[in-house]
Design a protein that fits this description.
mainly alpha; two-stranded antiparallel sheet; globular
Length: 258
């Protein structure tokens, strides 16, 4: 009876007894949440109380996913992360307070990142390609207003699962973002994903050349500083700090020294 009331406990019992049915359990969780959304919707809008309850439900699913990742069940954790991510994205714009929803999106991204890292380290080439494709299918469906909270975090995860054969898909998405957006923030994030992709495929030195094409963004400058520090190039560290200081970004250069 307690297991029926506590979904996390129920999932743990199913796993320990070898009776866990990933497809069935995911369908059940998704069905329960979508039904709760339907009941809580009033004239196309979800009030704050229902939103809070829904976010608690989503977080319970993520807790289950985290426990699965703890036990090395990366594929199931990934599936739960994808499910929660999609449901939370669907809720955006239909709730009175987006903050709770953004938190669940961020939490789902963290679970996806953890599961993807496990798959990247121990999965077969075919498995990596499969999960990479799942991530990019999500990205292609996202709207421009969802890029900042959703596209860029998911793209960073996809980099770890990419290879030379399929990495062109990431480049296409980045090019689409650059063409559709004049935002300096979006351009800076695209630049950092390109750097991450090049480092993943070609190594640090190639990535460093890409990074140094534009150090105007705080994160790019900080990465250049950290890489120089790792190499023991203190002259370059000083030059980078001075450059940021002269550009009026004193707080950034101070932050690097902590």
């Amino acid at each position: 009876q307690q297991a029926e009331k506590d979904d996390t406990l129920r999932q743990e019992i199913l796993i320990l007894t070898g009776r866990y049915d990933e497809t069935g359990e995911l369908k059940r969780m998704k069905s329960n949440i979508r039904e709760a959304i339907r009941k809580g919707m009033r004239r196309g809008f979800i009030d704050w109380r229902t939103c809070s309850e829904l976010c608690n439900e989503l977080h319970s699913c993520l807790d289950i996913g985290a426990k699965q990742a703890d036990q090395g069940m990366a594929e199931t954790a990934f599936s739960i992360g994808i499910m929660v991510f999609r449901l939370a994205i669907d809720m955006l714009g239909n709730v009175s307070d987006d903050d709770d929803v953004f938190f669940e999106i961020s939490s789902a991204v963290k679970l996806l990142s953890r599961a993807s890292q496990q798959i990247a380290e121990s999965g077969t080439a075919a498995e990596k390609k499969g999960y990479y494709a799942k991530l990019l299918r999500i990205v292609w469906k996202l709207r421009p207003e969802e890029w900042d909270c959703a596209v860029f975090p998911v793209m960073k995860i996809a980099v770890a699962l990419s290879d030379r054969e399929n990495s062109e898909e990431i480049i296409k998405i980045l090019d689409k973002i650059i063409k559709a957006s004049s935002s300096s923030c979006n351009k800076a994030q695209v630049h950092m994903i390109r750097v991450a992709l090049i480092e993943h495929l070609e190594g640090r030195q190639a990535a460093k050349r890409e990074l140094y094409l534009d150090l105007s963004d705080e994160n790019a400058g900080k990465m250049a500083y950290e890489w120089a520090a790792e190499e023991g190039d203190w002259d370059e560290c000083i030059r980078l700090i001075r450059q940021m200081f002269e550009n009026g970004r004193r707080s950034f250069s101070h932050e690097w020294l902590k």
